[in-house]
Design brief:
By secondary structure, this protein is of the alpha/beta class. Among the domains are: about 90 residues, Alpha-Beta Plaits (2-Layer Sandwich), CATH 3.30.70.100; about 110 residues, 3-Layer(aba) Sandwich (Oxidized Rhodanese, domain 1), CATH 3.40.250. The chain is built from eight helices and 15 strands. The radius of gyration is 20 Å and the shape is globular. Keywords: Oxidoreductase, tRNA processing. It is an enzyme of class 1 (oxidoreductase).
Length: about 300
């Protein structure tokens, strides 16, 4: 079984190329694949490898003062959900697009998974899913508001249009692994909201911690790797990636007349230009040729 580790930490980093080189070396030496983002504000990403490989990477990170208290979430899969290693330098490790938002200065109140059910069951609490529409579509918590955003950059405008600090006194927020809530709660506090809570460790930690029979989670949880989604047992779900928009495709989606196998799904069908369709068809052709030769086409998979 491969260990899949999702991790992030907001911390001030300098000399990003050196960090990139050091982390890459540790990953390559231990057979770890996946994607990690580095920015001056910290680290974020998901990686996978053997138990020994992931432990070696975590040991290296924990040995560095900047990442000594870094936390991560784990799940298992029979195959490595990543085909290669990517370590990218970015302006933000999660892009909110609002200057000056710094979770190292202020964030909402953390709520452990064990206390989350009680919080979101209260009548005076507004529950907000900070993820994008295609993620919310396949699973969310009971009673959560869906901002219907297509990117995290749209979230601040949604808050300004739909939430009022004078009316919504208590707001509970959640996301996949916790990182988006770090920035969204920091933003909410700057907007004048006083009681802002977020699920510590995100949905993945909740699914890992709370027994299914006590769970208020409904559906699957979208993940950003080739598993597409995981169920409450953190096992691979029944979705596939759309080769065009990279959103999840369900069995129901495949029945739509806007689903084209290997090209597009109902969600992106009407948004694609003819040039994009031609490019996706050519990419799929190359993927199929690579498969026929027993190879992986890394430009289209993983």
């Amino acid at each position: 079984m491969f260990v899949v580790a999702a991790l992030y930490k907001f911390v001030t980093l300098t000399d990003l190329p050196t960090w990139q080189s050091r982390i890459r070396e540790v990953c390559e030496q231990n057979g770890v694949a996946g994607t990690l983002l580095l920015a001056e504000e910290g680290i974020n990403g998901t990686v996978a490898g053997s138990r020994e490989g992931i432990d070696a990477l975590l040991a290296f990170l924990h040995s560095q003062p900047e990442f000594a208290d870094l936390e991560h979430k784990e799940s298992l899969d029979e195959t490595n959900p990543f085909f290669r290693l990517k370590i990218k330098l970015k302006k933000e490790i999660v892009t909110l697009g609002v200057p000056g938002i710094n979770p190292n200065k202020q964030v909402g109140q953390y709520v452990n998974p064990e206390q989350w059910n009680e919080l979101i069951s209260a009548d005076d609490v507004v529950i907000v899913d900070t993820r994008n529409d295609y993620e919310v579509a396949i699973g969310s918590f009971e009673g959560a508001m869906d901002p219907k955003t297509q990117s995290f950059r749209q979230f601040p405008d949604w808050v300004k249009a739909n939430l009022d600090p004078s009316k919504h006194k208590k707001v509970a927020m959640f996301c996949t692994g916790g990182i988006r809530c770090e920035k969204s709660t920091a933003f909410m506090l700057e907007q004048g909201f006083e009681e802002v809570y977020h699920l510590k460790g995100g949905i993945l930690k909740y699914l890992e911690t709370v027994p299914k029979q006590q769970s208020k989670w409904q559906g699957d949880c979208f993940v950003f790797d080739n598993r597409v989604a995981v169920n409450h047992d953190l096992q691979r779900g029944d979705y596939e990636f759309c080769p065009a928009c990279r959103g999840p495709i369900s069995a129901e989606d495949k029945l739509s007349d806007k689903y084209e196998q290997d090209y597009c799904c109902p969600r992106c069908h009407d948004q694609l230009t003819e040039a994009q369709r031609a490019r996706f068809r050519e990419r799929q052709k190359q993927i199929q040729l690579a498969r026929a030769k027993g190879k992986r086409h890394f430009g289209g998979e993983g």
